[in-house]
Amino acid sequence: MFSCMLELVRSLLLDAGEVRRGHRSGREQRYAVSKEGVVVNTLTILGNGTSFEMRQQSHEGLRVVLADDHLILRDGLKAILKEERIEVVGEASDGLEAIILCGKLAPDVAVLDIFMPLLNGIDAAREISKISPNTKIIILTMMIEDRYVLSALHAGVSGYVLKSKAASTLVDAVDTVCKGEVYLSTGVSKAVVNAYLTRVDAPIEPLSIRERQVLQLIAEGKNVKEIGGILGISAKTAESHRTNIMNKLDIHDVAGLVRYAIREGLVQIE
């Protein structure tokens, strides 16, 4: 009897400190061996001189901002987090709105898509890291290419989750980054992980964050007046930024700027 129960517990647990899904009262729950945080439903089973302690991890008080331009996806993510009692305190449909929300709400975690209107998730992450330094950032994307992962990590992101795995791994990613660790979805290449761990320098970015914002808006088809209105600057200042961008990149037509923005991952071809 005890040996059977012991094997059950072993099957539910990973190495100490890691999380495994369990089942209780017909509802999916997560359990972790941990002495930190609020502990609920502690169960100790003794057998053959060995003691195991199974604890349900609590997410009470965790506050998250979600940023993705697809409402259906945000609703799905919110349902996943709500089931684990993680509060979604704000939702954004573009990168600029995500920055504003994080500056105002200072959430524990911000979950950002890479490709969003007005400002992409990686550049938004750079700004959020400045204005809300205690906010942990998770990128949620379909992009597995090395350059996106490395750019995200160098931008201060703590988690990189593939959308195809979000339903089963997002909560684990939130738990991981809140402990000050880095979470990378399975499938991220070992070369990227090694490059990050050895602190390989990111390529030098020729444009300032404001110029990258302007460049993305140009690639999205906005004129200087529209860009000024979106960024809260004058059309003349927006025009000046466009001129500086062209000079720095040695690209002197809008079509060339659009191609550069696509190549750099600032916008995505639909």
Can you put this structure into words, describing what you see?
- There is one protein chain.
- With 270 residues, the chain is α/β, with parallel strands linked by helices.
- It is 44% helix and 21% strand.
- It has helices at 2-12, 71-83, 95-105, 121-131, 146-154, 166-178, 190-197, 209-219, 224-231, 235-249, 254-263; strands at residues 19-24, 27-32, 39-47, 50-57, 63-67, 87-92, 109-113, 136-141, 159-162, 183-184.
- The strands form two sheets. A six-stranded parallel sheet has the order 6-5-7-8-9-10, with helices on both faces. A four-stranded antiparallel sheet has the order 1-2-4-3, with helices on one face.
- Strand 5, helix 2 and strand 6 form a beta-alpha-beta unit.
- Helix 5 runs parallel beside helix 7 and helix 9 crosses helix 10 (235-249).
- It starts with a helix and ends in a 7-residue tail after the last helix.
Keywords:
alpha/beta; Rossmann fold; single chain; 270 residues; 6-stranded parallel sheet; Arc Repressor Mutant, subunit A
Set out the fold topology.
Layout: H1 2-12, E1 19-24, E2 27-32, E3 39-47, E4 50-57, E5 63-67, H2 71-83, E6 87-92, H3 95-105, E7 109-113, H4 121-131, E8 136-141, H5 146-154, E9 159-162, H6 166-178, E10 183-184, H7 190-197, H8 209-219, H9 224-231, H10 235-249, H11 254-263
Parallel strand pairs: 5-6, 5-7, 7-8, 8-9, 9-10
Antiparallel strand pairs: 1-2, 2-4, 3-4
Helix pairs in contact: 2-6, 3-4, 5-7, 8-10, 8-11, 9-10
